[in-house]
Amino acid sequence: MLTLTLKEPVERVPLETEMLCPDIVAGLDMGAIRALPVHLGKRQCRVDDFFAVEGEASDELELRGDLRKVRWIGRGMSRGRITVAGNAGMHLGAYMKGGTIEVAGSASDWVGGEMSGGLIRIAGNAGGQIGAAYRGSRRGMSDGTIIVGGSAGLEIGMRMKRGLIVIGGPARDFAGLEMKGGTIILRGGAELRTGAWMSRGTIISLAPIPLLPSFLYSSVYVPSFLRVVAQHLRRLGTSVPDDPAEGTYTRYLGDTAVIGKGEILVWSPA
Amino acid sequence: MVRITGGTVYDPANGVDGLVQNIYIGPDGRIAYIGPDGRSVADAQGSGVRTIDATGMLVFPGGVDVHTHVAGGALNFARGLVPENQRIARKFLHSPELRAGIGGLTPTTFATGYLYAGMGWTTVNEAAVPILSAKHTHEELHDIPIVDKSTLLLMANNELMLDLLEAGEFEQAKSLVGWLLWSSKTFGIKAVNPGGVAAWKWGKNANQLHQPIEGYTSITAAQIITGLARIVDELGLPHPMHLHQNNLGVPGNVASTIETMNMLQGHRAHLAHLQFHAYGGHDWGTMKSEAPAVAAEFLTHKNLTCDVGAVLFGDAVTITADGPWQHLLYELTGRKWGNLDVENETGCGIVPYVYSDHKIVNAVQWAVGLELLLLIDDPWRVYLTTDHPNGGGFWRYPEIIRLLMDVEFRKGEVRKLPPEAQNRITLGEIDRQYTYADVAIVTSAGPARALGLTQKGHLGVGADGDITIYSATPDAEGVMFSYPRYVLKGGQVVVEEGQVRAISEGREFIVHPAFDPGIEEFIRPSFQKVYTMSFENYPTEMTRLRHPHVVPCSR
User: Fold this and answer.
1) How far is CA A86 from CA A62, A83, A107, A122, in A?
2) Interface contacts A/B by beta carbons within 8 Å
3) CB B65 within 8 A of CB B144
4) How does DSSP classify residue B436?
5) How far apart are CA B381 and CA B307, in angstroms?
6) What is the pLDDT of residues A8-39, one digit of tens each?
7) Ramachandran sector of residue B264 (left: φ over 0; alpha: ψ -120 to 50; beta: rest)
8) Does the beta-carbon distance from B81 to A136 stay under 8 Å?
9) Distance CA A79, CA A77 (A)
């Protein structure tokens, strides 16, 4: 286990730390880890300018302190585990391919941007663009799982192709914008324009949500695939109702402004 | 001052085909001696003379790109439209010698110069400049280091010009073109989809060569093409009219391509990216190669030159003044689309595109470019381009050269195409292989001659000291010509052992044709009526160009 403790809070200018990635640190000695480059704005610095580095090189990292201004943690990681004891900054786990990131506090925007595998779990709230496509890209996350305990911001799952996003609290506008596949579970509902321009994929809301007029009513049922989803989620410590005795899902088809092969399922308790 | 000794020289313009020669480049950056005599070169003593031992290496004239898009409003628009491309592009970090930048399909200015020079190309022709963005283009070109540059002015949809041609005022139209060329400090005339872009402002196109253009009563695409070709000839411009024909990319466009060639009888013309104009079939489902027919017809027209605009599988960004075609392409891809209207002059469209080797249409396009390069067996009249970045990045030229030089490799690549695509092309039956001399012609000597740049594309005494020295063996991936051992520009070693070493500022070639200055009396009033810019601010001042070089017109 390698432990990095932030010496003093990073304020105003963000610190970019894409070197804090298990794939990079696991093969280095402690001296080399301390000397890894990080960027404070445009200035190149060393890891030990900002962090006290302890323990031994490993693909398990623990980051301590308030890292809300520390960006790109775990960028592109493919294995191992990163535990953040406090908050995490933007682009946490962006381009991640595998492994696990756990955040005890909250995270900022672009969690798991364009990730293709692995698990990110945020105990608190997260910002916008979770699992989304970076500006201009055709595809957001293509696999993997992101679980947020609290609320989320704008455009979560924007252009996602595959994978699973679970938001515990309410999400803001444009959840599943231009979604191409995958699943978003909104346990606390969402604000406006959910699923706008989605061509394929599934959005499940456990709370009533305002729907765009381009979503068409389809049926009321409990889809059989939900049992598989629920089983998978229970293993991850969360769930969706899958028992018809508890309630049913109303299915809406859309977005018919585009090809309309996506669906929004809204749960109503029995 | 540089001596190059012992290299095997390919200088087709001077009939040198693989002879071991010694070269001396004098203090003025021009070639002062070339020949077998080592002593004359060794005698050129003095301080600062550097000797490059090129024994066992290949010595070529520096590459010349006759048709590329590297600067200006359209390219900048494209840069903004494809951030995803720039994220994955090669990064150029700044160093004491080099400026920072990014590569990719729409490289930044400095990176463009490094990439071209790094590949051994020393002259590039920016093929589409609207007068309204000429100032911006020249400023970007100034920031493209090392290579020499020239620019072509978009004319075939300029409404002032169309008005004059429709009214039958040929002499006035000629003076207008001359005035606009000098006002924009450009080098030649480009005609893009003649009449089609003007019609696009009405939501239409010009698919028929002999029908009046939308918004006009009588003028047709055919009249614009022949009128402009005659104007270019009568002004005596060094480069013939550079024509992007009507019906680009449309299945079955072979008919209008051949008709256009016939129309141009008696005039010089350069047909740009001919690959996009050599398709048969009548829709996307039946599209096939008509390269053999186009090549056979082209060979009979000695007044014409062409570049191929080959496509390579992978990402591309299509950038063209051909607005209506870009809208069609957007409808085919369903991705992003950018459209610009350039007042009374032209238009512009941007659509990111992926050429996929699984798609029959793309496979046919890939083959047509190579077929034209192989079937037009007069290398002096067909030049290597990808219409960068429309068919692929210019830095992929070495991949095309390999396909041209190695018939077995080429046939292997053809066999990987979808079987249905293989039935629609003839590439698999062509056995011609390029020689080193052929490569030197299609990449340098030919385009330099077509551009009318007498000091480029050859290694004779007096030529610019633009020389590329390649290793005689392919790299680990079997590709030659990707990484020259040395590149000299104006006698200065700019690339050495894969690194850009020295940065020079290239020149800009422009022309100053003779025209009746009275034409301003026609331009000024109509200009004040229809343009958003004041007449006085319109022309590009000479002081905006850092290193202008006026190439004389023959009249």
Assistant:
1) 10, 9, 9, 10
2) 15
3) no
4) H
5) 8
6) 999 899 999 999 999 999 999 999 999 999 99
7) alpha
8) yes
9) 6
